[in-house]
Amino acid sequence: MVEELENKVEALLLATLNPLSKSEICEALSLGANDVSRIFRHLEKRFTNTSLELKKIGKKYKIGIRNQYSEIAFRYSESELSKGELEIIGILYNRRNVYFSTVERVRGNKAQKEIDHLVRVGYVEIEQRGTRRLLKLTKTFYSKYGKQLKEKIQEEPKVVT
User: Fold this and answer.
1) Confidence band (pLDDT; 50, 70, 90) for 79?
2) What is the pLDDT of residues 23-70, one digit of tens each?
3) What CATH number has the domain bearing residue 43?
């Protein structure tokens, strides 16, 4: 029974994109806070000599790869987005609504292909404004990454000029 609960918490923390609080884990698996704390201790012991670790991010938790193994793991992991697509998303996130011509100036002739892919995966939508095309991030993008980005931006140190 205990091992089954550990496996459920492990699966939950591996599968989630965003770290989860103890209360979110309790709610998802109908567990008490003491049960989750005990399971965390067991998982930490289980991961002692592995490439995985239970990471605490603020007051939330996620299972991730230990720092010393992250370089090799990420070298071979496949990102669903290219660096160029991530740059386009960064531009759209910072400026909200951007014309295609602006992105094209930054990304060059690769912009069309990258934007087409972002539209296909549902992260960007194109709105025709006369002869110009306005690019916007979609609700799909914000539901998948918005929470993470908001937390990341809040963690960034503010530069005083």
Assistant:
1) low
2) 999 999 999 999 999 999 999 999 999 999 998 888 889 888 888 887
3) 1.10.10.10
What angle, rounded to 10 degrees, do the helices at 100-107 and 111-120 form? Answer: 120
Rg (alpha carbons) of the chain, rounded to whole number: 20
Among 148, 149, 140, 124, smallest CA distance to 17 is for 148
Residue 75: exposed, middle, or buried by beta-carbon count in 10 A (0-12, 13-18, 19+)?
Answer: exposed
| pLDDT reported for residue 161 | 38
User: Positive or negative CA dihedral for 75, 76, 77, 78?
Assistant: positive
Q: In this predicted structure, what is the pLDDT of residue 46?
A: 93
H or E element: which one contains 52?
A: strand 52-57
Same domain, 68 and 87: no
Confidence tier at 6 by pLDDT (50, 70, 90): very high
117-155 in b/e burial notation, b at 16+ Cβ within 10 A?
bbeeeebbeeeeeeeebebebeeebeeebeeeeeeeeee
Range of the domain at 132: 83-150
**Inside any domain, residue 112:** yes
Q: Give the Cα-Cα-Cα angle 94, 96, 102 (nearest 5 degrees).
A: 85
Rounded to an integer, the average pLDDT of 60-84 is 76
